Amino acid sequence: MAGGVWGRAREAPVGALTLTALTEGIRARQGQPQGPPSTGPQPRSWELKPEAEPQTQALTAPSEAEPGRGATVPEAGSEPCSPNSALEPAPEGPHQVPQNSWEEAVLADLALYTAACLEEAGFAGTQATALTLSSALEARGERLEDQVHALVRGLLAQVPSLAEGRPRRAALRVLSALALEHARDVVCALLPRSLPPNRAAAELWHSLSRNQRVNGQVLVQLLWALKGALGPEPQALAATRALGEMLAVSGCVGATRGFYPHLLLALVTQLHKLACSPRSPDMPKIWVLSHRGPPHSHASCAVEALKALLTGDGGRMVVTCMEQAGGWRRLVGAHTHLEGVLLLAAMVAHADHHLRGLFADLLPRLRSADDLQRLTAMAFFTGLLQSRPTARLLREEVILERLLTWQGDPEPTVRWLGLLGLGHLALNRRKVRHVSTLLPALLGALGEGDSRLVGAALGALRRLLLRPRAPVRLLSVELGPRLPPLLDDTRDSIRASAVGLLGSLVRRGRGGLRLGLRGPLRKLVLQSLVPLLLHLHDPSRDAAESSEWTLARCDQAFCWGLLEEMVTVAHYDSPEALSHLCRRLVQRYPGHVPNFLSQTQGYLRSPQDPLRRAAAVLIGFLVHHASPGYVNQDLLSSLFQDLGQLQSDPEPAVAAAAHVSAQQVAMLARARGRPRGPRLLRLASRPARPPPVFADSPFQRPSLAGRWGCSGPGRV
């Protein structure tokens, strides 16, 4: 019968060898000589009456493991994987040695019977076979875990040599039969042999995944093994690879119903641990998404497991969007992991059928003593706040209190996540009652030294302006002393965000500005006008484009009619357009000309060559169009001195522009020094000052004209 079941890959039936190897191992430990099993007719195991009570300690897998008490993966030849195995006393005295020779062949006979049963009965015989195997193994007088481990090792060694088809499927169902009763022991036996990646181990994981009766139990055991690990140790790495193998099988994700959120968060947390762990020299720093075939690193294996989990749950769009947004690359980066978590959470939030379970698992993790687990949970919690159904699950006061508490944390990353959460909260139109509580935290963060905190606060304030009944006047007053320094921040992203926030504020308050209201906002705009004009030439493209957009909003709100000139200056660096713009501003705000000149003078010492040249050119045109009575002699002397020093600038274009503007300052100073007389005589005798002529700028960027719509002076 054995020959028909397994084929003749070796002299003895291969299927029998799997269980017979266990019998021979037991006899060897009991001091009996090893020999070939008897193949003659023998009594069945259930017909035997044992002569003595076996000294066994049966271990069963708990139906629901506790978090943090995951199975420990033993090394080869070590104790079984049990949390208390190291504390259990060793069995006293030698094991009972069976005296009858016919008992030596019982297990081999059972192996032949089991294989035939599995092959002939198919899937329906798995449960009966599991009970038979358990009865036989427990009757051998050994620790059950040791026997399961030995049986799994035998399967790993022999399955690759079996022929494809029914023989191999029958052998793999032996593993499923074991896992049905002893899932924890089977997982503990397979995990140490999953590193390094092993094709035989992968095949066994796949077979467990396809069996609908056992795959859920095995996934739970792998989840606890992953959550119980303290870092990217062999146990966690092996569990990650095993999860990747199992979830890759179509239909296996359905077995995660009930613990899907736990599994999702465990994989994301494991990615954070892998990203922060030291890499070996041969491990690539960045996982290449174009890799084909098996994953080349533990991080890529965890990413593939996440993709399989999301795809199997109907989240194929999430996987695609993460790919397009670079989310997977961010998840595996040490410095970008939390950004990837925020992106993933925002996309998962749209599939709100898991929101309740995700929050239930996230809230305890927010107080975890493990920093990596806590930060990952905070990032996921923050990302989920972008979902509108969140408002139905958590009360506004609870969310706000938690986010404000994070602002007092000494860790900047925690404060950054809290500010992002406040920004997401500001977008929710239902949560409108606590703006006065949000504002102090956001405004206070503008003085932080960490660029992430300042950027998050600027973004949150900008979102706050998108709400109906946004507090424009209050923000104009509060941002008056805080925003202008940020317009000249050395960090490109902060500069661009601050300019954009000013544009959003002007757009929301344009109705009042047209009517002559909004005094604080009008003052803020005039105070920021020179920085906006100069940052049209900012080396940072984001800052330059943000300045252009904000100036377009100001032109619309103040009805300047200078949109065409602004766009022309931004894209073509046209002296004629800048001269017309300066003339209009000097005519409209003559009292602000000294402030305009003083602000521009500060940029003459900018470390950026384009800004130094732009400042020199702007001074030349402002002075040319200014009336002598509005600029005092002290300011002109200071301008002339600074422009004189700038004429020795190492950049020739800057030195040439400074020379031309210095001439304009000298002519205005001479005009101020003429004796006073009747007004008509002064007007008749005042000679016209020649306009400044500047050479073309060498810093001009390729034009993107038309982006803001410049077909006519009032269009925005």
Automatic annotation (TrEMBL):
GO terms for cellular component: cytoplasm. This is Maestro heat like repeat family member 6. Gene3D superfamilies: Leucine-rich Repeat Variant. Residues 24-99 are annotated as: Disordered. Residues 108-219 form the Maestro-like HEAT-repeats domain. It comes from Macaca nemestrina (Pig-tailed macaque). Residues 399-665 form the Maestro/Maestro-like HEAT-repeats domain. The gene is MROH6. InterPro entries: ARM-like, ARM-type_fold, HEAT_Maestro, Maestro-like_HEAT, Maestro_heat-like_prot. Keywords: Repeat. Pfam families: HEAT_Maestro, HEAT_MROH2B_C.
